[in-house]
Design goal:
The complex is a heterodimer.
Chain A lengths: L1 H18 L1 H4 L37 H37 L1 H15 L3 H12 L3 H28 L2 H8 L4 H37 L11 H8 L8 H28 L9
Helix pairs in contact in A: 1-3, 1-10, 3-4, 3-6, 3-8, 4-6, 5-6, 6-8, 7-8, 8-9, 8-10, 9-10
Chain B lengths: L1 E12 L2 E13 L4 E5 L6 H9 L7 E9 L2 E2 L5 H7 L4 E4 L3 H4 L6 H11 L5 H14 L5 H5 L8 H14 L4 E5 L7 H18 L2 E6 L2 H7 L2 E6 L2 E7 H6 L4 H9 L20 H5 L16 H4 L5 E3 L2 E3 L26 E11 L3 E11 L3 E5 L6 H8 L7 E6 L3 E4 L3 H4 L6 H5 L12 H14 L16 H14 L4 E5 L7 H18 L2 E5 L3 H7 L2 E6 L2 E7 H6 L4 H8 L22
Classes of the chains: A mainly alpha, B alpha/beta.
Chain lengths: ~280, ~575
């Protein structure tokens, strides 16, 4: 339960930042102030109260960039994770439930897919697709659906052998009904865990792609870009590097904690004892 | 040797102190076999765990003594206890296959055990291991040492474990339901083996079982446990021929007989009180279910007293004889001649033939038993009939609907659906889904039909007892109004009193609704009690079929004879020869 609360609080914090970014930010994230470059955070020596977390090498407000970066991070995290989950879960359920040649076909597809190194694959995809947040999402979905497919297929396989699945078929359930009513509830806790883990992974992938400049266009703010920009000046201004890193770390930790906690709470198999 | 004096094992559950074992006293002398008999939840395993020093978290010995020789097992330093386990005290577990490490060979596991016992150098240990395997009559020991547990049958695994248990020549051996996971023929062999080694070594054996019939055969003394209390104890022979506690008598009467005319089973109502409930009962714990209770039983706690050679905790021990069954049920074979299911030369091949040329009929309202050992193809045949498997050759015709009641109620009920949804599953199938109100209405009716209250509708399977789950399982099958129920081992693993309730339910469904039944069971006494006709399967073939009385009285096929002989006879003074065809009892 503590995991859900901690994880949920972290994610909610990031969500709030993303949602209220225009209200919270005191500067435009792209506004350059070349007179005030590499200012330390306001609470450190030499800081300027106007720039809460200082400025980067172009004099842009770190705090504003952090807030607007959260928007992109969450947008990518949620849509990419959901997309990958949907694609992977659908294929996993079909493969595990029907078995036979369908399973063989999907299984081989996953294996071929997995034989490409994921980073290279996403880089190739980004080169082909071009930059932009939607392209980043698409690239993550196309690379990471295999993760869902593999793990969920195993769970579906176990569940499909249970007698209650046979009982449902004997009761006259169609395949779709059986899948949705008997099998999906059993795989859902795992799906949710994977989903929130994937959100964390998507945040990192988006940061990596933005870091190498293949993520979003230059006018969009991304945490990965902030790290990339901070590379040149991190000796004089380490905070420009540490601040976006901390943001990524907290978001990913939040996702992981939430996912693990939800799995434990959602599983009614753990409800025992007589009522 | 092993002696318990007023032993109390207690814990705190939901804030209340509860006693899992209450004032238990027994003595286990060298060379004797003490049987601990009772239904699940009575506290049988708690005794084994107390001896092994592995009580469940929260439970502890809070009173009395448990001594082995001159040492108190309760206050033993952990180091000394570790020394004793596997050396002075040996265990034979319930699930032989899971008790062995699946990734180590039998040889490695035996060797590790022998090394711990200090059995010399590598070569000496190997010789000792081979000698041990020979002692438990496992042929070709050298090859066996290289095998992994999954390459062995359950019976062979149990033999290996017995060999390990006897390796240290232990002073006491605790066998916790050592045969309940095995087939009857294997059970007979394992029990004989245990008895043989026990006589040879003079070991004291604590034999824990739910099977009164088996206990009668191999135990010298018996303790009957009910809700953590020994309700009766004494020599096996007198205790079972003239029980002095109504519970012992009820247990005997609720198990179906193997000889003599078919009689009704005694149906103990309700179930054993839980640990929390027991704490609130001032008088006898059995009073709520006792058929011969008197008013004073409710308030006066019974004290142990010795009557006719055994000790009983009943205020009115002479009333036990007054427990009788209801009249024998109207059990004439069902009159209908209309065939419901006709199976013709049905076969199924996986890698080998699982079912070969099965041909039989089931008539309207007929109760047919299908018996055989595990792996004989019983379940495959059932799945073929239900259309869950496709036959390789052959065909069958069906005049009506069939439904299946699954073997393992745990796996048969989706843990994520409520009972109300589970039993009315058939009404949600396809496009014409019934509204929820209508379904819950039907659910209540179905649950009433199987003897469950309406309050069960909102429960989840995890909140039900084994017997309740099996009832829900049956109720679900009834929802589609089938003409035939195919029931796969639905009473195995249940306590006799619950089993008797379920058998009565199945009989009632036939009398009231004319539902036919194909009952798959490895328990011959159950089939004998319930079924009009019986099919015997052996390695995929139906080797014998016919009217139950005829098959049981004059079995024609040698395999049927072997199956029947493996069950100990009802009369405990009658000789039991499990393997009549064999010159040597152990091969």
């Amino acid at each position: 339960m503590n995991r859900v609360l901690t994880g949920g609080a972290l994610i909610a914090l990031v969500f709030a930042c993303a949602l209220f970014a225009p209200l919270l930010a005191t500067h435009d994230p792209n506004e350059q102030d070349l007179l005030n470059i590499l200012l330390p955070p306001s609470f450190a020596a030499g800081g300027d109260p106007a720039f809460l977390l200082g400025t980067d090498s172009l004099g842009r407000d770190e705090f504003a960039r952090l807030l607007f970066g959260a928007r992109l991070a969450l947008l990518v995290a949620v849509s990419a994770a959901c997309g990958a989950a949907l694609l992977g879960a659908v294929l996993a359920h079909i493969a595990g439930y029907f078995g036979g040649w369908i399973d063989w076909l999907i299984g081989r597809a996953v294996e071929i897919w997995l034989s490409f190194p994921p980073v290279i694959l996403s880089l190739i995809l980004m080169v082909g697709l071009g930059t932009g947040a939607d392209k980043v999402v698409l690239a993550i979905v196309l690379v990471d659906w295999t993760r869902f497919c593999r793990v969920l297929r195993a769970e579906v396989l176990v569940t499909a052998r249970r007698d209650y699945v046979a009982a449902a078929r004997l009761a006259g359930f169609t395949h779709t009904q059986t899948l949705l009513r008997e099998i999906l509830p059993a795989t859902l806790p795992l799906l949710i865990t994977l989903l929130s883990l994937e959100m964390g992974i998507a945040v990192i992938v988006e940061a990596v792609l933005s870091f190498v400049g293949l993520g979003v266009t230059a006018d969009q703010v991304a945490w990965g870009q902030m790290i990339a920009d901070a590379r040149t000046s991190f000796a004089e201004a380490p905070w420009t590097l540490l601040i976006p890193m901390a943001a990524i770390f907290l978001t990913v930790t939040g996702c992981n904690l939430l996912g693990d906690g939800l799995r434990r709470t959602l599983d009614v198999r753990l409800v025992t004892g007589r009522a | 040797m092993l002696e318990a004096r007023h032993l109390v094992i207690a814990a705190t559950l939901n804030g209340e102190p509860v006693e899992a074992i209450h004032q238990l006293s027994f003595t286990l002398a060298p060379g004797r076999v003490l049987g601990v008999v009772g239904e699940s939840g009575a506290g049988k395993s708690m005794i084994a765990r107390a001896i092994g020093g592995a009580l469940p978290p929260g439970f502890a010995i809070t009173g009395g003594t448990l001594r082995l020789g001159d040492e108190d097992l309760a206050g033993l330093p952990p180091r000394r206890r570790l020394e004793m386990l596997g050396r002075d005290i040996a265990f034979v577990p319930q699930e032989p296959i899971t008790a062995l490490n699946p990734v180590q060979t039998i040889g490695a596991q035996l060797d590790e055990h022998l090394r711990r016992l200090g059995a010399g150098r590598r070569r000496a240990r190997r010789a000792r291991a081979l000698a041990l395997l020979d002692e438990v009559h496992l042929p070709d020991g050298a090859a066996l040492l290289r095998r992994y547990p999954h390459q062995l049958s359950g019976g062979m695994c149990q033999r290996v474990l017995i060999a390990m248990a006897f390796a240290s020549r232990p002073r006491i051996l605790v066998a916790d339901e050592p045969t309940s996971a095995l087939d009857v023929t294997i059970q007979a062999r394992i029990v004989q083996l245990l008895a043989e080694l026990q006589r040879l070594e003079g070991t004291a054996v604590l034999f824990i079982t739910h099977d009164l019939r088996l206990a009668a055969r191999i135990c010298d003394d018996i303790v009957v446990l009910y809700a953590g209390r020994a309700v009766e104890q004494g020599p096996a022979a007198t205790l079972l021929t003239a029980p002095l506690h109504p519970y012992t008598r009820c247990l005997q009467l609720s198990a179906p007989a193997m000889q003599g005319p078919r009689r009704a089973l005694f149906a103990l109502p309700d179930r054993m009180p839980s640990l929390n409930e027991v704490a609130r009962l001032p008088g006898c714990h059995f009073v709520a279910r006792c058929p011969v209770a008197l008013p004073d039983c409710v308030i006066t706690p019974p004290i142990d007293r010795a009557v006719a050679g055994h000790v009983t905790a009943c205020l009115h021990p002479l009333r036990a004889a007054g427990v009788v069954c209801a009249d024998p049920p109207a059990h004439a074979p069902f009159a209908s001649r209309t065939p419901l299911l006709q199976v013709e030369a049905l076969s199924k091949r996986f890698r080998t033939w699982a079912v070969r040329n099965a041909s039989f009929d089931i008539r309207e309202g007929e109760l047919v038993g299908l018996v055989g050992e595990s792996g004989s193809g019983k379940s495959t045949l059932a799945r073929l009939i239900m259309g869950l498997e496709r036959p390789t050759t052959g065909r069958f015709t069906f005049a009506g609907k069939a439904q299946m009641v699954f073997q393992d109620a745990q796996s048969a009920l989706n843990p994520r659906h409520g009972v109300g949804d589970i039993v009315t599953q058939a009404m949600q199938a396809g496009r014409n889904r019934a509204p929820r109100v209508e379904r819950m209405h039907r659910a209540a009716a179905l649950l009433a039909e199987v003897g469950l209250g309406e309050d069960m509708i909102d429960r989840y399977p995890a909140q039900l007892s084994g017997g309740q789950r099996q009832r829900v399982n049956i109720a679900r099958a009834l929802c589609a109004m089938p003409r035939l129920l195919v029931a796969d081992e639905i009473v195995s693993g249940l306590d006799v009193s619950v089993q008797a309730q379920l058998l009565a339910l199945l009989l009632r469904l036939r009398t009231e609704w004319g539902i036919a039944l194909l009952l798959i069971s490895h328990d011959l006494s159950v089939v004998r009690h319930l079924c009009d006709r019986v099919l015997v399967m052996h390695r995929g073939d139906i080797v014998e079929q016919g009217v139950t009385e005829r098959v049981f009285a004059r079995p024609a096929h040698p395999y049927t004879r072997r199956l029947l002989a493996a069950v100990p006879p009802d009369d405990i003074t009658a000789p039991w020869q499990p393997f009549p065809d064999e010159m040597e009892a152990h091969i």
